[in-house]
Amino acid sequence: MSIRVRFFASLKEQVGYSETMVSSDQVATVGDVLQQVDRASVLTGRLLYAVNMEYAKLDTPVAEGDEVAFFPPVTGGEP
Amino acid sequence: MSIRVRFFASLKEQVGYSETMVSSDQVATVGDVLQQVDRASVLTGRLLYAVNMEYAKLDTPVAEGDEVAFFPPVTGGEP
Amino acid sequence: MRVRVTTEALDPWAEVTAFQSDSVHLRGQFGATACFVGTMRDFNEGDAVTRLSLEHYPGMTERQLEKITVAAADRFEILDVLVVHRVGDLLANDPIVVVAVWSVHRKAAFDACRSVMEELKTNAPFWKKEYLQQGARWVDKNTAG
Amino acid sequence: MRVRVTTEALDPWAEVTAFQSDSVHLRGQFGATACFVGTMRDFNEGDAVTRLSLEHYPGMTERQLEKITVAAADRFEILDVLVVHRVGDLLANDPIVVVAVWSVHRKAAFDACRSVMEELKTNAPFWKKEYLQQGARWVDKNTAG
């Protein structure tokens, strides 16, 4: 299974790149993807997850071709 | 004592003019002024009162040179 | 704070932009602007309304609007307030009133803007007369807030 | 309904005016417009902020903003909603976001405008990085509503 993984804001800086691919038959959920991309546990703070641009949880299933994103709590709007 | 009396909106139409003068030693309050200007009781509906451009009540005292206004409930702002 | 009553066509966005440009003390200080515009509809209570005549009490209107804006500045943590109200003859789609509030954070701006509108409807001496196809009528009550 | 993310300078009043002119279905129908503008301050949490970098998740941002406006239209009696959000590099006094809501009466416009802003801050994938004199920091929490 092939999953596109994206990082935003502080998480992008922590991992050092904005996206990567995970190709493995061992990933069934967002949590599995996270383990694959963060073996060294560099991601800190509260994490949010999205699958195909919809908010997801660690146990949300992922499928071939999905886009999974990891990012910190959002801070849009006015200051 | 000489008091300037003003009418607005529907009250102006009911009395037929927008202002008048009351000159009498018998007027001590807004209520007295109202009696003087509306002997025929043509003013109908809920009335609001102002003395010198501040909201007042029927028993608010009036003095020489005051401006007393009678008008219906206000309807400013959006529709 | 600025309070203005005008017989001329009201462009709410131009008023807000002009006030903001004039207000050097706001620059870099405000994070939030809440703004409300009341506009004439072409219907009310089920009837088609062709035009509206807005009467006011010159002098008292400005005084009451000033009291309302001062009260809002006392009650809410805001930086500034603008109120402009149209009077005279209006057609459908004409803006009637604009209230704008500047503050550091959004809560105060929203709360104050709404409060000023409610107070304005209750305490500012304006009266609306609607012209329908079959004659005219004074609007005798406010809409609920 | 219109939702837009832009890297260019945002003129909130021009956006609102343009949307209103384009919206023929609003003419004569709306009595109330509630509008909120968020603007960059030159300070935050006691520090001088020289500039701000606003990152977002292209595609997801628009999708989430659309969900937010649809939810507001379901929940409140409104006629239309506009949301425009700036991204990229901003300087103090630059507008960041504008939310405008049109409705027949003011209550729905105020309620919906505020609700859209709260939802936007909670659910739209935007991230702010502040540049201070002594370096940069990610803003890690929202202001209370």
Radius of gyration of chain A: 12 Å
Compute the separation of the termini of chain A in Å: 41 Å
Q: Approximately how much beta-strand content do the residues of chain C carry?
A: 35-45%
Please write the string of helix (H) and strand (E) elements of chain C. Answer: EHEEEHEEEHEE
Q: Biggest sheet of chain A, strands in spatial order?
A: 2-1-5-3-4
Mean pLDDT of chain A: 94
> Mind telling me the C-alpha Rg of chain C?
16 Å
Write down the secondary-structure element order of chain A: EHEHEEE
Structural class assignment of chain C: alpha+beta
Q: Low-confidence segments of chain A, ≥5 residues, pLDDT <50?
A: none
> Level of helix content of chain C?
25-40%
Structural class of chain A, by secondary structure, is alpha+beta
Mean pLDDT of chain C: 95
Would you report the number of β strands of chain A? 5
Regarding quaternary structure, how should these chains be classified? heterotetramer
Treating each run of at least 4 consecutive H or I residues as one helix, how many helices of chain A? 2
| Helical content band of chain A | 10-25%
Structural shape of chain C = elongated
Strand content of chain A: 25-35%
Provide a concise account of the structure shown.
The complex is a heterotetramer, with 2 copies of chain A (about 80 residues) and 2 copies of chain C (about 140 residues). Chain A is α+β, with helices and mostly antiparallel strands and about 80 residues long.
Fold and architecture overview:
- The complex is a heterotetramer, with 2 copies of chain A (79 residues) and 2 copies of chain C (145 residues).
- Chain A is of the alpha+beta class and 79 residues long.
- Chain A has helices at residues 9-15, 30-37, and strands at 2-7, 19-23, 48-51, 54-56, 67-71.
- In chain A, a hairpin with a 2-residue loop joins β3 and β4.
- The longest helix of chain A has 8 residues, at 30-37.
- Chain A is globular and about 45 Å long.
- The relative contact order of chain A is 0.31.
- The mean pLDDT of chain A is 94.
- By secondary structure, chain C is an alpha+beta fold.
- In chain C, 31% of the residues lie in helices and 40% in strands.
- Chain C has helices spanning 12-22, 60-75, 106-123; strands at residues 2-6, 32-39, 43-44, 47-56, 78-86, 88-91, 95-103, 126-132, 135-138.
- In chain C, strands 3, 4, 6, 8 and 9 form a 5-stranded antiparallel sheet that branches. Chain C has a 4-stranded mixed sheet with strand order 1-5-7-2, with helices on both faces.
- The longest helix of chain C is centred in the last third of the chain and has 18 residues, at 106-123.
- The two termini of chain C are 24 Å apart.
- At the B-C interface, loops of B face β2, β4, α2, α3 and β8 of C.
